[in-house]
Amino acid sequence: MGGGGVLRDSKGQWISGFSANYGEGTSILAELLAIEKNVVLESECLEDVHIIYEENPFRIASILSLINKIRSWLALSWVVKVCFVNREANMVADFMAKLGSHSLHVMKIWDSIPTDCQPLLQLDISLIA
Question: CA nearest 92: which of 60, 65, 125?
Answer without folding.
Answer: 125
